[in-house]
Write a structure and sequence with these properties.
mainly alpha
Length: 431
C-alpha cells in the first residue's frame, strides 16, 4: 500500500470530516493520489466521462427518479394511500400498518428511499399525528424505517448501481429483492403491532370494507406499474433501462390522462428537480469511478481477497463480517458511496469463496438501506426532519426498535439465502 494511496484516504477522511459533500471529498482525495503518483490529472476527467457515458445502464437512474417524482406530484399518491387505509387501517396500530403498506406499494414505483420518505411519507406522518394516537417521533420513525423498503422491491436505483460495479444481472437482482422487501414489511408491521398493543394506541375510524372495491378500482392503474415493469424485463420485451423509460412514460400518462392531476408548470418543476437529483447521483458515481481506478491501481481487491483466503474464512463468517462492517460504515457514509466504493472491494473475495453475487448484492443493499436510519448519519432521519420540522432527537428516540427489527430481518437473509434466491432460481437463475 503506497504513500500516495494512504494520502488519498487521509484526504478523503479529512475533507469529508469538515463537512464537505462526500463526492467532492472523494474527487479531491483521488486527485491528490494522481498528482503524488505522477499520473496525469486529466486522467480523472477521462475516467469520469468514460464511466458515465459508456454505461447504458445508468440511464435508468434519472428515468426512475422522474417516475417517482411524477407519482408523488399528482393525486396518484392520495388514491394509493386511501386504498391502504381501507385495507389495513382498521387494525390495532392501523395508521402504522398503512405507513408500511404504502411504502411497499410505492417501492414498486420509485426505487428511492428518499423519494418515498419525502413524498408519501410526509403525508402519512401528518395523518398519523392528526389522529392523536401517535407521537410525532413515532410517526416519523416508522416512516423512516418503512422507506428503507423502497430500493429493495424493484425498481431499485441502488441495485442498478450494484449491477454496474459487479456485472450482475439487474433482472435477477430485481427478482431477488421482492421477497426480502415483503419480509421487511412484515417484520415492521409485526413490530408496529407489538408497540401498538404495549402502548395501547387507539383504533382508527377506517372506512368500511364495502368501499374496498371502489378504492381498489381507483388505485388499480397505479398498482399496475410494478407488474408492467417486471413483465417488460422478464418477458423479454424491454431491457431494465428501457423499462425505466416505460415507467416514467406510464407515470406521465396516468397523471395527465387518467387522473388529470398534473399541470404543465408542475411538470416543469418535476423535470428540474429530477435533473438536480440525477446530477447529484451522477457526481457521486463519477467520483467513485475515479476512486475505483485508484483502488484498482493499488491492487487492493486482489490483496484483500488473498488475505481472506489465507485466513481460511468460511463464506458465512465472511458475510457476517462484511455486513457488520457495512452496518458500521452506514453510520457515517451514504448508501451510494458504500455501493460504489466499498462493496467492490469485497467482490473478488466473494467469487473466491463461492458466494452468490445476487445474494450478496441484495443483502448488502438491504444493509445500506438500514444505514439510512442509523444515527448519527441517517439520511432519512435528516430528510424527515427537514420536510416535517420534527426535531431529530424525537425521531432517534423512537427509531431503535424498528432498527433492531430490520437488523433481525437482515440476519435472516444472510442465514437463509433462499429468502433472496428462491424467486430468481424459479425464473431460471443458475447461481
Amino acid at each position: 500500500m503506497s504513500f500516495a494511496f494512504l494520502l488519498c484516504i487521509g484526504v478523503v477522511l479529512v475533507v469529508a470530516g469538515i463537512g464537505v459533500p462526500i463526492a467532492y471529498a472523494v474527487i479531491v482525495g483521488s486527485l491528490s493520489y494522481l498528482f503524488v503518483s505522477g499520473e496525469s490529472v486529466g486522467l480523472a476527467g477521462k475516467l469520469m466521462m468514460d464511466g458515465l457515458y459508456g454505461s447504458f445502464i445508468l440511464l435508468a437512474v434519472p428515468l426512475f427518479i422522474v417516475a417517482a417524482n411524477i407519482m408523488n406530484a399528482g393525486t396518484i399518491s392520495d388514491r394509493l394511500l386511501q386504498f391502504c387505509i381501507v385495507l389495513v387501517g382498521r387494525f390495532r396500530g392501523g395508521m402504522g400498518h398503512v405507513n408500511v403498506v404504502a411504502s411497499l406499494i410505492f417501492s414498486g414505483m420509485s426505487g428511492s428511499a428518499v423519494a418515498d420518505a419525502a413524498g408519501i411519507g410526509k403525508i402519512i406522518i401528518e395523518m398519523m399525528t392528526r389522529t392523536g394516537h401517535y407521537t410525532r417521533g413515532y410517526a416519523a420513525a416508522i416512516t423512516a424505517a418503512s422507506a428503507t423498503i423502497g430500493p429493495i422491491i424493484p425498481p431499485s436505483i441502488p441495485m442498478v448501481l450494484y449491477a454496474l460495479v459487479s456485472s450482475t444481472s439487474i433482472g435477477y437482482l430485481f427478482l431477488g429483492g421482492i421477497i426480502p422487501g415483503l419480509f421487511m414489511g412484515a417484520v415492521l408491521m409485526a413490530m408496529n403491532y407489538i408497540i401498538a398493543r404495549k402502548r395501547n394506541f387507539g383504533l382508527e375510524d377506517a372506512p368500511p370494507l364495502r368501499e374496498l372495491p371502489r378504492n381498489t378500482l381507483q388505485a388499480f392503474p397505479a398498482l399496475l406499474m410494478p407488474a408492467i415493469l417486471l413483465y417488460g424485463i422478464y418477458g423479454g420485451v424491454t431491457t431494465p433501462t428501457e423499462a425505466a423509460a416505460v415507467a416514467a412514460f406510464y407515470a406521465l400518462l396516468l397523471a395527465v390522462f387518467i387522473y388529470r392531476s398534473l399541470r404543465l408548470r408542475v411538470f416543469m418543476e418535476i423535470l428540474i428537480d429530477s435533473a438536480r437529483s440525477s446530477a447529484a447521483v451522477g457526481l457521486i458515481i463519477g467520483s467513485a469511478l475515479i476512486l475505483n481506478y485508484v483502488v484498482a491501481a493499488e491492487n487492493i481487491p486482489n490483496l484483500l481477497a488473498e488475505y481472506l483466503n489465507n485466513l481460511d474464512v468460511s463464506p458465512l463468517m465472511f458475510l457476517l463480517g462484511v455486513n457488520l462492517l457495512l452496518l458500521l460504515l452506514g453510520c457515517l457514509l451514504d448508501a451510494t458511496t458504500i455501493i460504489l466504493v466499498i462493496i467492490p472491494l469485497f467482490l473478488p473475495a466473494c467469487r473466491e469463496l463461492g458466494i452468490d453475487l445476487v445474494h450478496f448484492g441484495v443483502v448488502a443493499i438491504v444493509n445500506t438501506m438500514i444505514g439510512l436510519i442509523t444515527p448519527p448519519y441517517g439520511v432519512l432521519l435528516f430528510v424527515l426532519t427537514a420536510v416535517t420540522g420534527i426535531p431529530l432527537n424525537e425521531i432517534i428516540r423512537e427509531i431503535w426498535l424498528f432498527l433492531g427489527a430490520l437488523i433481525v430481518a437482515l440476519l435472516a437473509m444472510i442465514l437463509f439465502p433462499d429468502i433472496v434466491l428462491w424467486l430468481p432460481k424459479y425464473f431460471g437463475y443458475a447461481g
